[in-house]
Amino acid sequence: MSHAAAEFKPLHLAVLTVSDTRDLTTDTSGQWLVDALTGAGHLLADRALVVDDIYQIRAVVSRWIADARIQGVLITGGTGFTGRDTTPEAIKPLLDKEVEGFGELFRAVSFTEIGTSTIQSRALAGMANRTIIFCLPGSNNACRTGWEKIIAPQLDSRTRPCSFVMHLKEGA
Question: 37 near 47, Cβ under 8 Å?
Fold first, then answer.
């Protein structure tokens, strides 16, 4: 028995950029994700940019997790090893379940593009209140790799044998 839908189901997705140096006019990775998700047929439910601060990140993502219409969150930035990179620490406590394979697969796919530097990525994903959350590095290339090779297929109801769509809240 297949759990995949026969037709595409657009999702309501939010994009968060975590950056100490960008604003919405210079946020190329966040804009890339917005263009990619809308280009794939999904709906942009909200977009925000916050400095790399655990509590500001948690405040925005917590609000989106609680929002009945937001089914997924794409976060770019704050996943490295500098002293200010705190996205994983901000997000992990909010998760009901971590998608362990996401970070592993992201690093495996990235290896062909950036070699061993991929081990410095702390990309992660998880589910909170039936909302899928993906945390990606802040570069355009990392967002492209994550979206095209992993996230887009897992947010497509037609993906077989399964995608995350069946586990998400219904949205509005």
Answer: no
Global pTM? Answer: 0.94
If DSSP codes are grouped into helix, strand and coil, which group holds residue 39? helix
Q: Which CATH superfamily is domain 12-167 in?
A: MoaB/Mog-like domain (3.40.980.10)
Distance CA 136, CA 17 (A): 10
Give the model confidence (pLDDT) of 7-29 as tens digits: 899 999 999 999 999 999 999 99
Residue for token digits 């993502």? Answer: 61
Residue 5 has pLDDT above 80, yes or no: no
- Contact residues for 125 (Cβ-Cβ < 8 A; gap 6+): 98, 99, 102, 103, 132, 133, 134, 135
φ and ψ of 30, to 5 deg? -65, -40
